[in-house]
Structure formats: structure tokens, C-alpha cells
Write a structure and sequence with these properties.
Blueprint: E1 7-8, E2 13-18, H1 25-32, H2 47-59, E3 63-70, E4 73-81, E5 98-105, H3 115-128, E6 135-138, H4 145-153, E7 157-163, E8 168-175, H5 176-189
Organism: Streptomyces flavofungini
Function: Acyltransferase required for the direct transfer of medium- to long-chain fatty acyl moieties from a carrier protein (MbtL) on to the epsilon-amino group of lysine residue in the mycobactin core.
Pathway: Siderophore biosynthesis; mycobactin biosynthesis
Length: about 200
Amino acid sequence: MRRTPSRDRGVGTLAMRPLDPFEDTELVHSWVTHPKSAFWLLQDARLQDIEREYMAIAASEHHDAFVGLHDGEPAFLMERYDPRYIELVGLYEPEPGDVGMHFLVAPTDRPVHGFTRAVIATVMEHLFADPRTHRVVVEPDVTNTAVHRLNEEVGFVPEREIDKPEKRALLSFCTRESYDAAVVRHAVATRPTAVSGART
């Protein structure tokens, strides 16, 4: 099973592997039905519903799913899709190299500072590792202000609100260049300040 190369981002080592709809369904069901995952709109989903959903994703040529690992243990979920065929058909004009994305950090009672940002950075680098990807597209619920702020931190630019069957969404885009610029901004902002008189 192919994995995204591991990387230590200061919160532990993060990596991704393809989701196995037979082995991972019970775990993913516990994540997406948790009250903290309300924006995934699966609060009432049964185990068999989730199994059926990810079996369909595994069979699709336009949609796939990954389990994210934190120090080797499952800790987040990512879905990648082709917006020409999934989710956004007829709602915007796709460009060559567009890739759609959803991600979910596993609910926890012991959040780690900086973890969610480290997760989305891992996701973005996984998507942009494919040279065919020019732009990542997201469509979170318009009321999900926390994810809007996070998306903007990694380079997403909101374009407009759109009406999907299940929600009103904020259509946003992140180009490879915008993400690279956001990485530089973050590195500068988090660089340790030199102590006066310290040897460098």
C-alpha cells in the first residue's frame, strides 16, 4: 500500500495512505458521526452507509480517499476528487489541473496546538506532488468560519458563494504559487527570534 512520505512538522510525523473501505470504515464512521464533525453532514449515517460510500469512492476513477497518520496512528481523513465530474458539476467553470479536496481531522478531547494546520499542509503537499495539479478547489459551508481562516492561511482565495444541494458553500481556490507563498509567510512568521547578544 503506497504512502505519502512521512514528514515531521513539529507536532509529530504525518503521512497518508489510501483508505481501505473494508478495514477503515468503522474508524471513519466514528469520526464523521461525531458531533465535532457536523459540517460533514453525516451525523445520522449508519456503518453500512459509510462502507457503501467509501466502496463507491474506491471504485471511482474521479474520486479517492486517504487516511492520514500521526506518528503511525490514524488521525485524519482526506478526499480528492475531480471537480469536472464530482461535487461541482455545473457550479463553476473548471480549469485544467483543478483538483477538489475535503479533509477532516479526527475529533479529540486533547487537541495539539498547530496540528490542524500541519494536517492541511500535508494534504496540500500531497496534492501538489502531482505535477498535473495546478489549483486546489474547496467548497466548505459558508458558516464554517474556522476552516475559512485555515484555508486562507495556506493560500486559498475565496471567490464566491454557491448553492449545493446539501449546503451553501464558499468556493475557494489555491494555486501552486499561492500555496508556496503561504509556506514562505508561515516560515517567516514562526521563525524564532534571535536573542540579543546570542552567538549565531
